């Protein structure tokens, strides 16, 4: 493809593109080149050869795309930092009885904070990625807004709620208005090597979905060992081989026989217990959220209405928000919500605008 013509004497905009080696970031880079920007590709080598994302094999795919587009391209090795800040933190969360969501940390720290640092080294003031989301300016306040993608099925704002005003001001999201089908069609038309590359829905460093095995390999000396499975009254129903095998809302694989359908309702790390109960016991009228990030930079008034997503694929539940003085928030759901899992993100939406979000700490009766 050929880049758009640049007026004589005009300086080309320089943008660093996070290139994961997939079709989305490849097309994001192509759209910037087509616009006439000087796009520089950077692949962050993060999780090693077993990863389905950001491995050296993915870097090779990204390099081929960059060559096709006539871009400069670099690989930056962050494997040690990624292991410490993302992978080991993931294991520690599971061992604390929480269900972590490492993609939010990766996006905030690596794909934006560290990538923007790298951009400044390369003389660029902006970064771009292949995330399906949109950024614009609120006409009333002049503040940046994070908005859900045009393709609702691919929207990735759930993983981006921690971005602040400075990051949003420096961010390009070229795919926000496109569908996945349109992205693949563009990649095919441009002859990009990643046009038909499949995508993974798993956590990149858990390619086989076996979270417990990853926890055991990262923290072999911290495993809690055998413990009790109890009901809400504390009656022992069975035993387990580690709370890191469980998450709130889980029904299958409990390892106990019962005439009723039982679900994990709580993980008691201090006592190494898995608490189970009926479906009704999973419902929570309220939830406490910690470490809340507000896109606008400050919390909205108490009582602000929002649709709250408590899992990536959660459709959202209508609620009122109560910001707290400790930097958290209390979510008052209009109707009880099932499987509030501590450690997962709670993201607050007003229409297609993301107000912010944080991390679930507990269900509240």
- Any idea how many domains? 3
Q: What is the strand content?
A: 25-35%
User: What shape does the CA trace take?
Assistant: globular
Helix segment tally: 7
CATH architecture of the largest domain: 3-Layer(aba) Sandwich
Rg value: 22 Å
Element order, helices and strands? Answer: EHEHEHHEEEHEHHEEEEEEEEEE
Cα distance spanning the termini: 58 Å
Structural class: alpha/beta
Q: What is the top-level CATH class of the largest domain?
A: Alpha Beta
Q: How many runs of DSSP E, i.e. beta strands?
A: 17
Tell me the name of the CATH homologous superfamily of the largest domain.
HUPs
Write structural notes for this entry.
- The protein folds into 3 domains: 177 residues, Rossmann fold (3-Layer(aba) Sandwich), CATH 3.40.50.620; 53 residues, SH3 type barrels (Roll); 83 residues, Translation factors (Elongation Factor Tu (Ef-tu), domain 3, Beta Barrel).
- It has 365 residues and is α/β, with parallel strands linked by helices.
- The strands form 3 sheets. A 6-stranded antiparallel beta barrel has the order 12-15-14-13-16-17.
- It contains 7 helices and 17 strands.
Describe how the helices and strands are arranged:
Layout: E1 14-18, H1 23-35, E2 38-45, H2 56-69, E3 72-77, H3 79-95, H4 102-121, E4 126-128, E5 133-137, E6 144-148, H5 165-169, E7 171-172, H6 180-190, H7 211-218, E8 227-230, E9 236-240, E10 263-268, E11 273-277, E12 283-294, E13 304-309, E14 317-323, E15 329-338, E16 345-350, E17 353-364
Parallel strand pairs: 1-2, 1-4, 2-3, 4-7, 8-11
Antiparallel strand pairs: 5-6, 6-17, 8-9, 10-11, 12-15, 12-17, 13-14, 13-16, 14-15, 16-17
Helix pairs in contact: 1-2, 1-6, 3-4, 3-7
């Amino acid at each position: 493809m050929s880049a758009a013509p640049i007026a004589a004497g005009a300086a080309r905009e320089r943008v660093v593109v996070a290139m994961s080696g997939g079709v989305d970031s490849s097309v994001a880079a192509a759209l910037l080149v087509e616009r006439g920007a000087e796009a520089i590709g950077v692949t962050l080598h993060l999780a090693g050869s077993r990863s389905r994302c950001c491995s050296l094999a993915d870097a090779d795919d990204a390099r081929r795309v960059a060559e096709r587009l006539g871009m400069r391209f670099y690989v930056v090795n962050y494997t040690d930092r990624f292991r410490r800040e993302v992978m080991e933190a993931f294991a520690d969360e599971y061992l604390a009885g929480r269900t972590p969501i490492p993609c939010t940390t990766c996006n905030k720290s690596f794909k934006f904070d560290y990538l923007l640092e790298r951009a400044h080294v390369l003389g660029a003031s902006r970064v771009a990625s292949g995330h399906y989301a949109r950024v614009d300016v609120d006409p009333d306040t002049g503040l940046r807004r994070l908005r859900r993608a045009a393709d609702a099925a691919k929207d990735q704002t759930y993983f981006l709620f921690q971005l602040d005003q400075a990051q949003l001001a420096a961010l390009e999201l070229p795919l926000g208005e496109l569908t996945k089908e349109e992205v693949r069609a563009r990649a095919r038309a441009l002859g990009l090597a990643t046009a038909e590359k499949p995508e993974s829905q798993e956590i990149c460093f858990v390619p086989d979905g076996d979270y417990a095995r990853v926890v055991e390999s990262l923290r072999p000396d911290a495993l809690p060992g055998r413990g009790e499975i109890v009901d809400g009254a504390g009656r022992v129903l069975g035993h387990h081989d580690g709370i890191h095998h469980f998450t709130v809302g889980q029904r299958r694989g409990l390892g106990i026989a019962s005439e009723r359908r039982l679900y994990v309702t709580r993980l008691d790390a201090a006592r190494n217990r898995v608490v189970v109960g009926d479906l009704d016991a999973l419902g929570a009228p309220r939830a406490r959220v910690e470490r809340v990030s507000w896109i606008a930079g400050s919390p909205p008034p108490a009582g602000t209405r929002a649709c709250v997503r408590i899992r990536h694929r959660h459709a959202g539940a209508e609620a009122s928000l109560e910001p707290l003085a400790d930097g958290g928030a209390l979510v008052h759901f209009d109707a009880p919500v099932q499987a509030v899992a501590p450690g997962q993100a709670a993201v607050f939406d007003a229409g297609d605008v993301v107000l912010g979000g944080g991390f679930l700490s507990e269900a509240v009766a």
